[in-house]
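Translate sequence into structure tokens.
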Amino acid sequence: MANLVLFPGRFSPASRTIGRAYAYLFWRPANAGEWLDLVAAFLLWPVAILVTVIRYTRRNGTVVATQFGHSKRRQAAEQLKVCLTSGLLPPWYYIFELHRPGAMDCARDYLTRGETKHGAYKLLAMARGSSSPLGDKEKFARFCAERQVSALPSVMSVHDGEVRWNGGAVGSLPQADLFVKPVHGRGGRGAERWDHVADGSYRHTGGERLCADALIERLRAMSAWQPLLVQQRVRNHPTMSDLTNGALNTIRMISCLDEREQPELIGAVLRMAVGENVTVDNVHAGGIAAAVDLATGRMARATYAGFDSSMGWIDRHPETGGAITGRSLPMWDDVCDLVRRGHSAFCDWAVVGWDVAITADGPRLVEGNSGPDVDLIQRPLGTAFGNARFGELLAFHLEKSEQAWRT
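Result follows.
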């Protein structure tokens, strides 16, 4: 934020607007906890930055020095420079590959989690009175069904030990693979996959095996900590079978309302699970993501999160060998149409991050996110959002509603 105050001319008009909105919230802690966070940030900031620079330089320095000729000392200095002049923390020096020739000049145009999730998104939600159920997966599925927007249905939910079957009547678990996730969860945390076995039982990916009644009792007990949603496990479109290790691939697509309040597609990546995680495809959970061209559905190279520079970029799925680069996803026009219809149904939100599955029966919304991360989608897209269409629209809505969120 200091760099915006001291050197405003270095930033695009959109980045300045978004940065000012974030500063507005940052300096107005809402409770004692936020005040403590603010004080702790000021006290620990210098030490935390230096420790993080050392940690990530040790982790990535040798690889970057070999590939780009930047010494470890130069990498450390550039991380500090980026932090002081652009507000990006040291890990994002490697995530956005700012060590590449000319990349440092673009550092100030990248949007951060703080500016978006903890700034612009919050202010726009307050100003617009956003309330349609993006944060509740159970209500989300019901909301979509009522508006005839194709989304994954639920089998049941479990709240504090109470089982609520979809449709209201007492039912039973289907003889099919199941997917269990927290109703209010994010990032794939707490999700479980239970595969149906020939004898009627269900086997967890970790090896545990339970009959239907025992599984329901297990879910009852787990729901004491957080409500759970149970869905029938969905599989990828057959043409995408070589792009997964068993987990469902989902497209993360961000849409934003334009100047006429119409949904506009901003960017999309296909997420793919790799390694031992056969439950979720989230990049934060170790998966990979490939940018998808919005006009054609054609994929570019895939990448990991970027915290480890040795992992780099890949053209094929590391386990199946399935081609990624240059490959077109099926039913792409249908995917784009579904996201536009979805945002029209949730039009009280200016920005939505959609998770979309492409099945043999067509695309289905898995969930919608009111605060989509932009850091890890900017990397595979190779686009700094602050100086692109997304930043332009975000700034437009902030300026349009400024009187509302400042009151």
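Note: The chain has a mean pLDDT of 91.
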